[in-house]
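REQUEST FORM: STRUCTURE PREDICTION
Request ID: SP-0412
Submitted by: Lab K.M.
Chain count: 1
Length (residues): 198
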Amino acid sequence: MLKIGLTGGIGAGKSEVSRLLAAHGAVIVDSDVIAREVVAPGTAGLAAVAAEFGPGVLQADGSLDRPALGAVVFADPERLKALNAIVHPLVRARSAELEAAAAPDALVVHDVPLLAENGLGPLYDLVVVVDAEDPVRIDRLVRLRGMAEEEARARMAAQATRADRLAIADLVIDNSGPLEDLAPRVAELWAELKGRQA
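STATUS: Completed
RESULT:
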C-alpha cells in the first residue's frame, strides 16, 4: 500500500485532482467528507460542537449550521483551534478505519486540506500539493463558489501559505491554468505514483 497525502489551498483544485485520481483507481480517503460525517445529526461530534459553540451553530432541524459556524471560526483563530480540537481526532480515527479496509496493493490518497497546517506530512509515504497562484484561487472562489473577495482572502489567510505547502511537497501539480490542462497532469502523476509503488 502506498499512502499519499494530497493537499492544496482553497481554490487550488485539490478536489478535482482527487476526483481524477479516483477515476484512475486510487482509494480516496476524503477528510472533508469525513469531517461532515463526524458532525452529522446524532453524532457525538455534533454534540461536542454544540456544547463548545452554543445553539447558534445549529439549524432548526438540529443539523450543523455551517455558515454560522464558519462565520465564528474563520474570524477568530482561537475558535478555529477549538473546533479543530473536536473534529480532527474524529476524522483521524475514521480515516484510519477506511485505510485499513483498503486492499494491500492499493494506492490510498488521503485528501487533507489542512495537511501542512497540522504538520501531517510525516504520516504519508508521499505528499502531493495541488498549487495555483493566489489571484487564480481568488478568482475561482469568487466566480465559481460565489464568495465575496474579502471572504475568499480571509479563508486563504486562515490556511498555510503557498510557500509552506510547497515546502512539504514531494510532488507538485500546477493547476493555475484551465481545467482541461489538469487531466493530463494527473495522468502523469498517476504513472509516477504507480512507478514509485512498484
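NOTES: The mean pLDDT is 93.
Reviewed by: T.R.
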